[in-house]
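Please, does this match?
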Amino acid sequence: MLLAKSGTSGGIDVYAPAFGSGFSIVVEAKPGASRAPVNSFTFREEGPPDLQIQVSRPIGDPTTAVCDDMPPLLGGVPAIDPPRFGEDQTITDTLNDLACRFVDGSGNKVGRRCSDQSACVLQMDGDFGCASPDATTQFCGFVSQALVFLSGDTTVTVRVLDVSGRPGPPKQMIVRVP
């Protein structure tokens, strides 16, 4: 079930889950003006991932470790505020730290094709797929207790690269936790 938008703030859609964890963030992407396919790596040892997602406030208990997403090393993710993308190693590490938690149905650090049964949105007909009819790729990240959003508003900023490394336009949403 998709969480309905609860309103807008400054032109940005607001989503208000009941708690700061226990939900998924789903990012859907489609080819841009170049028509090049969306690339889908959510973690890269060298350089930024294709899914570039960041938060304006830290989530969980942030550490300097990158992709500390497996027990016993479960760390949170630092904030990037104001939102920015770039070649700075700290930004690259932070982008990888959050994006690596978006996995396919087998735990691989990649996105999912909308046509796959591993897509994470259950459709009305009982099949899985993308919520947007023109999306081709879906990134699904579960917000566990290790990534809990703090009470209040956190802006999530995301963009996705195509197979040529060109970024799509950044999009934002606000996660509002009571």
